[in-house]
Design a protein that fits this description.
mainly alpha, 11 helices, 76% helix, globular
Amino acid sequence: MANSNAPSPFFQGVKAASIFGLVVAPFAVIFGIVSASMGLSDFQTFGFSVIVLAGASQIASLDLLNDGAPIFIAVLTGAILNLRMLMYSAALAPTVQNLSYRTRLLMAYSLVDQCFVLSQNKFIDEPDWTHAARSQYYFGVAIVILSIWFSFSMIGYYFGALVPEQYDISFALPLSFIALIAPSIRSLPHLMAAMISVIGTLLLSFIPYNLGLLISGIMAIIIAAQIERHLEVRNVK
């Protein structure tokens, strides 16, 4: 029997996402600082966040442009980094298929790493939740993450120059992804994908414009998919 005193799915999502605000906020500040240093206006910075809404690709694209990379390389890098959203969408689709088109469209727009990982893990832990409860949890997460991203991006833009150079807040980038990925490694394919990504990125770091990161990511997806397919075939037998 469900606990009537338990917080609603929406507020459970808000609570879960609030913890990640500690690492999302510095991540957003970094984007704002980079945008300001490159001469983007505040309107362009905010518009970039609202339209692209993908921190890793936003920072990677700006970093490449700042290093003098061709525009098509920066755009391609951002696009490839965001290909993971297709996998996120495919994984979440069965849990939201009965929701209205407008609701699913809003979920698609707000789908970022934190929203996916927190929601997917929660849905696994709460298999009896209705589709409505799942959407409430998802939007509880999304509202917190997006609010923090938008607001702290602008804080970084306007006040980033006030941060002393000795305080290197770039630690937030890897910390954010480690905090997200670690709880999601629940099988051998997941573990292999993580290991191949890390090892491949290190070995291919000599390739310009961070293309080694993209290559290692694609390799990790292909190899992990093959491992998962092999395990499924063996289990059937």
